[in-house]
Amino acid sequence: MKHCTPFIFVLGILTCVACSNSTSQKQEQVSSDSVTNDSATSSLVSNKFSIDSVIYSDSIYIGRNDNRDSVWAHVNINCSYPYTDNPNWQMSKKNILYWICDIFDDSTHSNWNDCVQLVSKYGHKELKKIKDDFSELCVDDTCMICNEHLEHNIDCKLLFENDSLITFGVGVYVFMDGAHGGYHYEGRTFNKNTGHVYNFDLLSKYDKKTLNNYMLKGLSEYFECPADELSSCADISDIDNIPLPSASLYVTEKGINFIYQQYEIACYAAGMPSFVIPLK
C-alpha cells in the first residue's frame, strides 16, 4: 500500500476563540444566561482568548478506476482550539474543547486537552476507514469508482468574539464518489464567563408570531421568493409555522444566525438556506 507521509503543525497566534459541546450530558452543567444586544454588536473586545491551530493533511492510495486513473483518498483538517490562563474562562475553555472532541468522534473526551493528538488520531482513522470501505469495490487494483479523488475535509474556526460571547463554526465536506459531495455546517456560541452553550434559548425573548415573521422574511430573501409564495420555493407546507433548523443557532456581530442543511427544506441546488435575525 502506498501511503504518503502526513504532516501536522501547530500555529500559535493570539486571537479570539470559542466553541460548544454538542452533548450536554458530557459537558459541565451551568445555568442559562441571558444575552443582551450589546453582546452581539460590540466591536471592541477588551479580553480575548488565545488560540492554536492544528493542521492535518494526508492521503492514501485506493486503487485504479475504470479509466486506469489512480484513485486517492484525502483527509484535510484545519482546527483552531483555545487556551487561556484566565481562571474565569476555564469552564468555557473546557466546554469548547469538549465540543471539538465531539466533532472528532471522541465521545469520552479522552483527548480534550490535546487537540494535536485528537486530530491526528481522527485523520489516520478516517483514512483507514475509507480504504476499508472501498476495498470491496476493488479487484486486482481496479475499482468501481468514477472519480480520481475522494475527500473528507473539516474546517473549525473562530467566527466571533466580544467581551461576553464567543462563537465557533465547523464545516464538514465529504465526497466519496458519485455526482457531488455533501456539506454540513453549524456554529456554536458560548458564554465566556459561565461556559453556557447557547442554542434555541437565544430565541427566549421572541414570541412565536414575531419569530415566524422574521424567519419568513429571511427565507423569502434567501430564495428571492415572495413571502406568500414561499411554499412553492421551499419544502415548507405551512408558512405560519416554519420549522426551526436542525443545526444550532449561533451569534455573530450581525445577530442570531439560522442555517438549514442540504436537503433540509430545499433541493441540493438551492444550497443551505440561511439568514440572520436581531439578537434581543
List the helices and strands and how they pair.
Layout: E1 7-13, H1 37-41, E2 50-64, E3 70-83, H2 90-103, H3 115-135, E4 138-139, E5 142-143, E6 149-161, E7 165-175, E8 182-191, E9 197-198, H4 208-223, H5 230-233, E10 250-252, E11 255-259, E12 274-277
Parallel strand pairs: 3-6
Antiparallel strand pairs: 1-2, 2-3, 4-5, 6-7, 7-8, 8-9, 10-11, 11-12
Can you summarize this structure?
With 280 residues, the chain is of the alpha+beta class. Helix content is 21%, strand content 31%. The strands form 3 sheets. It has a 7-stranded mixed sheet with strand order 1-2-3-6-7-8-9, covered by helices on one side. The protein has a 3-stranded antiparallel sheet with strand order 10-11-12. The chain has a two-stranded antiparallel sheet with strand order 4-5.
